[in-house]
Amino acid sequence: MAMDYSQLPLGKHTAYGDQYDASLLVAVPRSHTRDFWHDNTALPFNGIDNWTGYEVSWLDNKGKPQVACLLLAYNAMTTNIVESKSLKLYLNSFNQTRFATPEQVATIISRDVEKIVAGAVSVELQCTPFPDRLAIKPWQDPCIDHLDIAIEQYCVDAQLLQCDSSLFTEQTLVSHLLRSNCPVTGQPDWASVRIHYHGCKITEESLLRYICSYRLHQGFHEQCIERMFCDIWLQCRPEKLSIEGRFTRRGGLDINPFRASHTDMHPTHARQLRQ
C-alpha cells in the first residue's frame, strides 16, 4: 500500500520550537517502504538502523548550554521508522530546556523514540570534544568505483546483476557512488555502500551498474538498502550477505542502515569521509 507522505514534515515550512516537545516525532510504518518484497516468505534479513546526530544541545540546571553528538540505534524489525525531519525538529526542541544531566536527556530521547518506532532504542550521548567513536575511518576494502564502464540505465533493475556460477568466493566490495532521492522532497541522498557476501562471484562491473541505477530512484535510506539486499539475495543467491549504507548527513543527522542474512554479521560503524 502506497503511503500518503503529504502529512510528513519533510518539504514544508516549519516553525522551530525551542522547548522540549515529544509530539514533534512522526512515525513512518516500515510496511509502506517494503513493497518491493513480493515473496510470500519472511524478509531475508535482520539488521539495525544507526543514526548520528551532530547538532544536539540543551541547557543545564544553571542555564549553561550543553552540546553532544547523539548515537541512536534501533532494530530493523521495529514496526516503524522515525521520520528524519521530525527527529531534527524534536532534537531542536531541547535547545532552551533545562535538564539536570546528559543521562536525563538520553533517557528521555530513548523513551520518546521507542514509542514512535514501537521497539527498543539505544541512545548514547557523546559529550567529549572529539569522541573516538565518531572518528573518520574510511573502509579499506576494495572499491569498484574505478571501473571504466558505460552506464545507460538509471532505473533500478535486479537483472543488471550478473554472477559467475563457476567461481565461489567470499568478498567485500565498496562503492561511494550511491545516490538516491527523498520520496517526499525529491532532494538527492548520497551514500557509501559496503557489500560483503559468500557465494558465486558477483561481476564487479554489473554490481557497479546496479548501484548507479539508484541515481533517479525515490526511496528512504532504509528502503534503498533493503531493496539492494533483496535484489542481490534473489538474483545472485549468496549463502551469506550483508550491506551497510553510510549516508551523508542532512539537517545534522546521518542514517546508516545495516542489513544482514545472519546474526553473526555486524556493521563496521565506520564513519566515512563525506559524513
Report on the architecture of this protein:
The chain is an alpha+beta fold and 275 residues long. It has two domains: 5-133, GTP cyclohydrolase I, C-terminal domain/NADPH-dependent 7-cyano-7-deazaguanine reductase, N-terminal domain (GTP Cyclohydrolase I, domain 2, 2-Layer Sandwich); 158-260, GTP Cyclohydrolase I, domain 2 (2-Layer Sandwich). The chain is 18% helix and 32% strand. It is built from four helices and nine strands, in the order E-E-E-E-H-H-E-E-E-H-H-E-E. It has helices at 84-92, 102-117, 204-212, 221-236, and strands at residues 27-29, 46-59, 65-75, 80-82, 121-126, 163-181, 188-202, 240-247, 253-260. Strands 5-3-2-9-8-7-6 form a seven-stranded antiparallel beta sheet. A two-stranded antiparallel ribbon has the order 1-4. Strand 8 and strand 9 (253-260) form a beta hairpin. The longest helix is centred in the middle third of the chain and has 16 residues, at 102-117. The radius of gyration is 19 Å and the shape is elongated. The two termini are 33 Å apart. The model has no long low-confidence stretch (mean pLDDT 93).
Query: CATH topology of the largest domain, which one?
Result: GTP Cyclohydrolase I, domain 2
Order of helices and strands: EEEEHHEEEHHEE
Shape type = elongated
Sheet/helix structural class: alpha+beta
Strand order across the largest sheet: 5-3-2-9-8-7-6
The total number of structural domains is: 2
**Biggest β-sheet strands, sense, barrel:** 7 strands, antiparallel
Kindly state the percentage of residues in helix: 10-25%
Rg value: 19 Å
Mean pLDDT, as a whole number? 93
The proportion of strand residues reads 25-35%
Judging by the overall fold, what is the CATH architecture of the largest domain? 2-Layer Sandwich
Q: Please provide the count of β strands.
A: 9
Unreliable stretches covering 5 or more consecutive residues: none
Going by CATH, what is the homologous superfamily of the largest domain? GTP cyclohydrolase I, C-terminal domain/NADPH-dependent 7-cyano-7-deazaguanine reductase, N-terminal domain
Terminus-to-terminus distance: 33 Å
Overall CATH class of the largest domain: Alpha Beta
Q: Please work out how many helical segments DSSP would assign.
A: 4
